[in-house]
Amino acid sequence: MKIVVQVRLMPTPEVASALECTLHTANDAANWLSGQAHERGETSRKALQGFAYLDLKERGLSAQPALHVLRKVADAYSTLKANIRAGNLGKPGSKRRRKAEAKPITFRGDAAQPYDDRCLSWQVDEQTVSIWTTSGRIRGVRFACSEQARKLLAEHRKGESDLAHRDGMWFLIATCEVPEAERYEPDGFIGVDLGIANIATTSTGYRAAGRGLDRHRKRQLGLRAKLQKKRTESAKRLLKARARKEARHAANVNHIISKKIVTEAERTSKGVALEDLGGIRQRVRLRKPQRVTLHSWAFAQLGQFLEYKARRAGVPLVYVDPAYTSQQCAECHHIEKANRVDQAHFICRGCGVVAHADRNASHVIAYRGETVWIAGRESRVPAPHNGVSGRRSQSSSQLGVTSRPGPLGLGSS
Hints:
Blueprint: E1 2-9, H1 13-40, H2 45-58, H3 63-86, H4 95-102, E2 113-115, E3 120-123, E4 128-133, E5 136-144, H5 147-156, E6 157-166, E7 169-177, E8 189-194, E9 198-202, E10 207-209, H6 211-230, H7 233-241, H8 245-268, E11 271-275, H9 280-283, H10 288-295, H11 299-313, E12 317-320, E13 345-347, E14 354-356, H12 357-376, H13 394-398, E15 404-405, E16 411-412
Parallel strand pairs: 8-11, 11-12
Antiparallel strand pairs: 1-5, 1-7, 2-6, 3-4, 4-5, 6-7, 8-9, 9-10, 13-14, 15-16
Helix pairs in contact: 1-3, 2-3, 6-7, 6-8, 8-11
């Protein structure tokens, strides 16, 4: 599995100037190439290399950086086409879609630039790098990182690294290939109900309340509004210093929550079951005051953190259908809209059970997670001895379980 490690470069003023010039040169070349690609209607990497490679080298790029610019532009257009096909930019003829298709893709002057091992070499023990710039190869550029990050770089770094300039600081973002732990057979599942009032509620009793994070977001929103209203130079400096502070805080909270859940699952030999909430922002309709809260909800990030931590620990993780998890009773599985009395209370109209709504939903998710796992795993039943292959029993077909090859290559249920 891939882990991203970010280290901060500590360049001298001369080196920082060379790095800045390199980024601007690469992104100016990318903008020129993007305009040519849009004008010609040719956006594949092969087509771009055919007519633009020599021109890119004339613009101050050596062979490998020129190829990286070609790929960056081609990948940007591939992403645009994928978003159009998926409908993320609206229906055909919509204003947003016409605007995206009518002009070439542009890159910021300080947008990140990829480097491979021919342009960038790491000396992890000395904590320095040797990096290509338009002014030539610069060696001995120091970087700072934690001991854990340094160990990951030394043992698992593989592939490209990105040079990024952000808030006056220089960073290298490296990719590390970390081996996954072997997944164990889970003894049940921990259901995780994601929400806004409670960020995460598990079927084991853990609940991460969202009040603290909500207060932090409201405070940051008020501070930004107050500083933007002043429009003074000092206010602008403070706004710049506070940039992304809310996002960093939310990411830290999600790291803490995901680590607790995965650690508990590993300790009890259980799996983790999550709702598949993809596209929820497009499906849900809310009043205007509630939209900021919905679009600030970092549920996808929490899901990603849970997924990669689970893979590193060997904890099985499954996604389940989120439909009616808030209306289904975890005891008798009766589904009714009236079961959900309000945000916090659940009263089943079928069996009369009373529970916290999020806690009930987490048990429903745990039940669905175990069902998904059983339906998808390879059968442990011995292969039949009568020579019949590919036959399923009635019970397994009713459960929707697909036959998989047994240990001898014969079909088993």
